[in-house]
Amino acid sequence: DSINDLKRAVSSGEIKEKKEFGIRFEEQLRRSLIEYERDFKELTLFEGYTYAKSIMMFLNKDFTIKLAGSVRRGKELVNNIDFVVAGDKEKFKKILNELISIKKTGKENQNFVSIKDKYNIILNFYFVPHEYFYSALIYFTGSKIYSKMLNEIGKVKGFNISKEGYLLIEGQDEKQIFEKLGMQYTPPEIREGEEEIDLALSNSLPELIDEKDIKGDLHIHSNFSDGTNSIREIKNEASFKNYTFIAITDHSQSLKIARGVSKEKLLKEFEIIDKINMDGDEPVLLKGIEAEINMDGTLDVEMDLEKKFDIIIGALHAFSKTNYENTERVKKAIESGLINVIAHPTGRIIHVREAMPLNFDEISKAASKNRVTLEINLFPNRIDLSSGLVKEARRNGLKYFSIGTDAHNTGHLNFMEYGIKILRRSWVKREELINTFELKELREFLWNRKH
Question: Quick one: 221 and 200 in the same domain?
C-alpha cells in the first residue's frame, strides 16, 4: 500500500535524491512515518483540525455537526477530537462506520459514542436535541472549569441542566445563548475559565484577531533554499489570500542541510523579486532572510547586503545544552540592531525535541527593549511561541509579535487558517501583530533596525 511504498522510498534514499524533495523533506517524512506507526499519544492542532474538518465535510449533509473540545479552542496538542451532533444516532453510526475504519468502540450510551480509529485517534460524539444544540456546543467546547462556571451562571438565571451537563437553553446560535445568560459572546479559543468570564459579564472582552486582519505572511521559503516552489508560484498562491505583502526568507548559507543561499544566489533572488514587484500588483514581495545566529551570537549575513533586506529573521537550528549560552547567544543577536524577528524562539519540535534551555524572561525583555518581534511560528510541529509564552512575553513588556507559516511549499501557506486560533488563544491584539500593519507602516517598523 502507499504507506509501505513511502517507507521503501525513504529507506532506499529515493526521496532525498529527487530534486523537488531533498534531504530536509526526507527527514521530515521519516519522522512522520515514525509518528504514524507509534501508539497514539497526542495530535498537533493542525492534525486534529484537518481531520475534524474532513469528517464534518462528509457528515454535515445528513446531520448538524460541529467541532467542539480542545481542537475548537485551539490547544496546541490535543488528546482527542470532540463533536456535537444533532440527528439520528444509529444512522450516524452506520455512515461513520463506512467513512472511518473503526478499531474499537469505547464508551457508548443513548447520547454519546466514543470510537478509536485505526490510527488510535479518539473521536467523541455527543448527540443532543436540535433545540439545545448551541447550548450543548458551548458546554462541550469549553474547558471543564469554564463549563462549570457557566452552569453556575445559568442556574442563577433559572435555567435547568440536562443529565449530560449542558444548560437547557434554546437558541439559533451561540450568541443567543450568551445573550440569555447576560454575557458577551466569548470566542471559543479563550473559553478556559479565566478572566474571560468576568469580562464577558461586564461586556468588556477585547475584539480578537481574525484571518481577514492578516495582511501578509512573514516567513516563507522558496526553491532558492529548501522550499519546493518558485518565488513566482508563491506569489500567485498568496494572491488568493488577498495579502498585501509576503516575505521571502530563505535560509542563510551556513545552514547547509537546508541548502542555505550564498551571496551570489541572494543577489539573483533579489533580481527576481524586483522583476516580479514591477508587475505592480499585490502581494508585494519583501526581501528577507532567515539568518542563522552563530555560536558567538553574530549573524550569518553578508554585511554589505544588510541594507538590501526588507526583513531579517534571526534563528537557531542548533543550540547548546546550557541555559546561559543559548540565552546570551540570542540576546547578542537581538541587541545587534540587525534583526527584526527571532524565529521559532524556543526551538522546540513537537514529538521530536523539547525547547532549548533558555531564559525566556531575559529574551522577551531584550526583544522589548530593542523593538525586535518574537515569532509565533505556525509550522504544525513547532507552534513556537506557544500561547502560554506569548502571554508571558507580554507580561515582560513585549509589545510586538510576528507570525509566519514557515512555508516550504505553496500548500503550507494554508497553515495561517488554523494558526489564527493560536493568535486568538493568545489574546494577541491587532496593534501587537506586525502582520496586520499596512505596508507603509510595516516598512517603517522593519527599517527601524539600526537605521
Answer: no
Q: How far apart are CA 397 and CA 60, in angstroms?
A: 45
- Regarding whether 193 and 289 lie in a shared domain, the answer is no
The verdict on residue 48 lying in a domain is no
The reply to whether 393 falls in a domain is yes
Quote the CA–CA distance of 446 and 214 in Å, as a whole number: 17
Check: pTM over 0.70? Answer yes or no: yes
Based on the structure, what is the number of domains in the chain? Answer: 3
Residue type, 93: K
Residue 342, in any domain of the structure: yes
200 plus 235 within the same structural domain? no
Task: Judge if 222 and 363 occupy the same domain.
Answer: yes
> Which of 405, 101, 388 minimizes the C-alpha distance to 249?
405
Instruction: List beta partners, residue 407.
Output: 220
Range of the domain at 178: 137-205
Secondary element (H or E) of residue 42:
none
* Residue 71 covered by a domain: no
Walk along the chain (451 residues) and give the pLDDT tens digit of each residue. 455 666 677 666 666 566 556 666 666 666 666 655 555 568 999 999 999 999 999 898 899 999 999 999 999 999 999 999 999 999 998 888 888 777 767 788 889 999 998 888 899 999 999 999 999 999 999 999 999 999 999 999 999 999 999 999 999 999 999 999 999 999 999 999 999 999 999 999 999 999 999 999 999 999 999 899 999 999 999 999 999 999 999 998 777 666 778 889 999 999 999 999 999 999 999 999 999 999 999 999 888 888 899 999 999 988 888 999 999 999 999 999 999 999 999 999 998 889 999 999 999 999 999 999 999 999 999 999 999 999 999 999 999 999 999 999 999 999 999 889 999 999 999 999 999 999 999 999 998 765 4
> Among 163, 184, 205, where does a domain finish?
205
**DSSP readout, 138-160?**
HHHHS-HHHHHHHHHHHHHTT--
Other Cβ atoms within 10 Å of 54 Cβ, number: 12
Domain end, chosen from 187, 205, 223, is at 205
Task: For residue 401, give the 3-state DSSP assignment.
Answer: strand
Order of all β-strands in the sheet with 102-109 = 64-68, 80-86, 122-127, 112-117, 102-109
DSSP 223: T
Looking at the structure, do residues 257 and 285 belong to the same domain, yes or no? yes
CA distances from 294 to 27, 211, 340 (A): 23, 35, 16
**C-alpha closest to that of 158 among 191, 175, 180, 136:** 180
Whether residue 190 is found in the same domain as residue 221: no
290 shares its domain with 375: yes
Q: Do residues 200 and 231 share a domain?
A: no
Query: What is the C-alpha separation between 440 and 227, in angstroms, rounded?
Result: 28
